[in-house]
Amino acid sequence: MAPKQNLNKPPAPAQTLGDLTSFRLRRLTNMYSKASASEYVRRFGLSLNEWRIISLLWAAGTLSLSRLSHQAQFDRGLTSRTVNALIDNGYVARHRNPDDGRGLVLELTPKGNDVVATVQPVASERNRQLLSCLTQKEAEIFDAVLDKLTHQARAMLDIEREKALQENHHKEASID
Predict the structure, then answer these.
(1) Residue range 77-106, pLDDT digits in tens
(2) Which of 27, 59, 102, 140 is the most exposed place for a label (fewest CB within 10 A)?
(3) 76: which residues sit within 8 A by CB, 6+ positions away?
């Protein structure tokens, strides 16, 4: 009779860069993104960043540039350049925020909404194809694992930010 596995046993430590979970996830993301980017440019004339901005605006309705930048996980400069290109091509419109006359909000134009209707099914199919190598149970587990890892990464980021803030306060106090 085989010994019972300890399901709470931590994974073996990474020995090389290729063993690191972050590297493996980045490699997966890069390969998938390159293929997606190529298809979106070839078929729709959109960069992957443009499609991401359009998709986020479609889901939200309207967003400020800073909120859009945060949701896209782009720096503000990249978001601004991408949005300006989308405005120039008629996909996005910029308006005064009705709740705050000083602020601006972004929203899709009818042309932007039309492109969502065309590209979204392709994006959904690409996602289905990527996950097609998994069983239904594996896909459910993978989704739960991604949620847990994202939560853990957020907690680690918050801790690191707090440590950096404390170190900066100590450095400033020692200078005074």
Answers:
(1) 999 999 999 999 999 999 988 777 678 899
(2) 102
(3) 65, 66, 69
**Mean of pLDDT values over 104-112:** 96
Chain centroid to CA 112:
20
The gap from C-alpha 107 to its chain's centroid, in whole angstroms, comes to: 19
- Rounded Cα gap, residues 68 and 74, in angstroms: 9
* Alpha-carbon dihedral angle through residues 50, 36, 26, 112, given to the nearest 10 degrees: 20
Confirm whether pTM is higher than 0.85: no
Whether 50 contacts 116, CB under 8 Å: no
**Tens-digit pLDDT profile for residues 145-160:** 999 999 999 999 999 9
Burial of 37 (0-12, 13-18, 19+ CB in 10 A): middle
Indicate if the pLDDT at residue 56 is higher than 90.
yes
Strand 62-63, strand 92-97: pairing: unpaired
Task: Give the pair of three-digit tokens for residue 70.
Answer: 């945060």
> Could you give the CA distance from residue 13 to residue 145 in angstroms, rounded to a whole number?
19
